[in-house]
Amino acid sequence: MSGMLSRLETYYDTVPRSAARAEEFGPLTLFVREGEGWPYYARPTLGHTGEVTADAVDRVRARQRELGVPEAFEWVAETTPGLRAAVEKSGLVVHEHPLMVLDGEPAAVTAPENVTVRIVGAGDAVLESAAAAPFAAFGVAPAPGAATKLAGRIEAGLTRLAAAVDATGTALSAGQYQPVGPVAEVVGVGTLPDARRRGLGLAVTAALVADARAAGVETVFLSASDASVARLYGRLGFRTVGTALIAEPAS
Question: Is a pLDDT exceeding 80 seen at residue 38?
Answer without folding.
Answer: no
